[in-house]
User: Fold these one by one.
Assistant:
Number 1:
Amino acid sequence: MRCGRRRRSRATLGATKPEGETFSDAERARLTNSLAGLEGQLSSLIEAARGLRKDAQLAKMNVLEHHIAA
């Protein structure tokens, strides 16, 4: 499921025009909406990364405490 969203985002955001051509209003609106969705996905990933960092720090502290106690 994630890969499908990633491909859709890439396909939508990767839309380019030859030099000198501009996006239509509909294309611009679609890209704007896609960016909002991408922002939401990034926020979720950032929060997950922060949680992983915190978990890793706690695990490292537990290992250090275990070694000190031994």
Note: Residues 5 and 59 are 32 Å apart (CA to CA).
Number 2:
Amino acid sequence: MLSLNKLEKQVHQYLSAMIRSDEKVARQFFSANFGINASQTLSQYLVQQLNEFAEKAPKYLVKNQFDLQIIRYDESMVHYCVLNTSGVLILEHIWALDGKGLFVGDQSQFQVIPKLQFCQKTGRKETINRCIAIKTFDVSIGKVLPLSVDIFDLKLSKSDFDDVYNCRFKMVDDEFNGKILPVNIYPVGNYPPERRQVYLKGKDHPFFQSSMYPDIQHNQLFFDAETKSIVTAVGIVTEDKKYHFYKFPDSPIKLNIPIVAATLMDGNDHDWALQL
């Protein structure tokens, strides 16, 4: 098992290579037994991630400088967060490791994104749901089954805008802290179910930022992301029922028609939905 110092150095070197768009160096930190990650081969994954780093780095990093924090690790996995020099969360990742401490794919056909969904409707009490967002690539999902007796109010829906299924649920006596939950994903057709050990992110995360609701003022949307987390995406519904999506947006967003609802996604992947 790598020591914490060696693991930090390795992850830092990998991230520096990605920020420099140096695919050759970045590839050295992946296992020969990488397999697939969210249905992608290593080459596909690197292309997608290099494109994302190329978007994020100029916007959120000053002179490509960043801080790295290891949240959890053992001989089989590492969970880390990347911060800019102001301490704002830029990205987070959990990797499986091989015997040499190199990154291994999750061997899954799906991209699984756990989150909390905060919803505030005018004049009503805030509601909070657990959610596992599952992006599919070649198959559809028939059922998602979290394996816990504490689960209730389970609902599965498909996004109207992309190939993402949202499995929403509540848990008995939930304090909304981080925990690991086994989940079975059942594809449609002649496919076996896929078992995943999903780390549910929670309010006890060191970079959780409370109350990141956007502010709707007629046809403008304002938000603040200066403390712990960037805003990775915003979805807006206007009075004419049209949907508008913005990736890595700046505040404010101004439209030509009144805004009736908006959802902000923060750097922890949590959703903050405001409905007038």
Note: The chain has three helices and 18 strands.
